[in-house]
Each structure stands twice: as structure tokens, then as C-alpha cells.
Amino acid sequence: MRINNMLPVTLFAVSLILASSICAQTNTSTNQFKPKPTYTAHLSVGQVLFGTGDVNGYGLLVAVEKSVFKKSVRPFPAFQVGFGLNFETGIRKPVHILHPNGVFEESSYGQTSKTSGWATFKYHPFKHSMDGFSVTIGPTLGITQSTSEKSVGFIYDTFYGVIRKSVLETENHFGMGYRIAVQQQFAIKDHFFIGFRADFSNDVHGDINTYLGGGLSYRF
Description:
Shape: elongated
Helix content: 10-25%
Largest sheet: 8 strands, antiparallel, barrel
Strand content: over 45%
């Protein structure tokens, strides 16, 4: 494997090691303080747009984060680190319509799925107003599968109308990238939170995703 291919993987690994080191340090330091830092588990579902939005679908995010500093009176810790797993898939439906005026309208088929790991670094910048607002950033490493039409042809049948015949091709590639999320959460019980979020992600292959969704969190 060439050096330029090793660099993204190395950067991602360094980020995970850094997050693990911070967690380990907080474990040691918080033995001197009570109560211990809290963990937060997240589940989020929503809509995802691939690229310019011509391919759209849904996304699922699961994540676990740990507060870096000891527990405070604030509902939301100032700084957290963790790891998330994202699954996003979308489809562009093909169009082939013969209008009465003789104009033929056609667009291609496309399907994209992406699964990626995300080393998260979350910061809650506000202490009083909008305490549930946070910004999360971190590197990602994942695999993308894309299916498109290699060739397409049409035939006309008097009974069925226009019939589409396609030859599909599928590509798979790994990619290092980054993901940024802004989120607003609201406490509904001592350990439960609901909220909404907006994410933007990109990778070395230029696969841009925009995600909008809601979620449920549990602190333990």
C-alpha cells in the first residue's frame, strides 16, 4: 500500500487514540471526584441528501459519548468525546415518460449507500441560554457503494408503453473524510433528551452528504 493511501487511515487512527487517551485520563482523574463523568448514548434517524440532492434517502446514527470533565450542575457537559456509526442510503428513481406531444423525458437510475465510523469531539458553547446546543466535529472512515446505469436502452410496446432496459454497474470504495454536526437537545426527564440535528459530511472522493433528523439520547 502506498504512503498516500496510508495517510488517511493513520489520521483516523490517531484521532481514535486521542479520544481514547482523553477517556483514560478522565477515568484516572475522576477517581478523585464524585460523582464520576457521565456517558450519553444517542440514536438519530432522518433524511439524507447525497451530492446536489438528486439522490435522497434516509440515515441512521448511533453514538456513545463520554464527558471529559467531572459531572457538573449543567444538564449538558461542556465537552465530550466518543464514537459514532453512521448508515446512510438513498436512491434516484429513473424516469422515462413519453408525453402526448412526442417529447421523451428521461433521467438515469442511481443508488448510493454509505457506512462510516466517526470519532466525535462535541462542545456545548453556551452555559445558560441554549444549554442544549452543541457542535460536533471529527474524522470519518467508511465505505461507499454506488450503483448506476452503465448503459440504457428503450423499446416501445403498444400494450406496456415505454420499456426500459438497463445494465447496472456497482463501485465500492473506502474513504477518509470529516463530519460536522450542529444539534439542539431538550431534557424531558432526568436521563432522557430529545432533539434535532443537521450534519454535513465529505470525504476524499468528494462524496458530500447532508443530513437532517431528530433523535433520542440517554445519559447514564
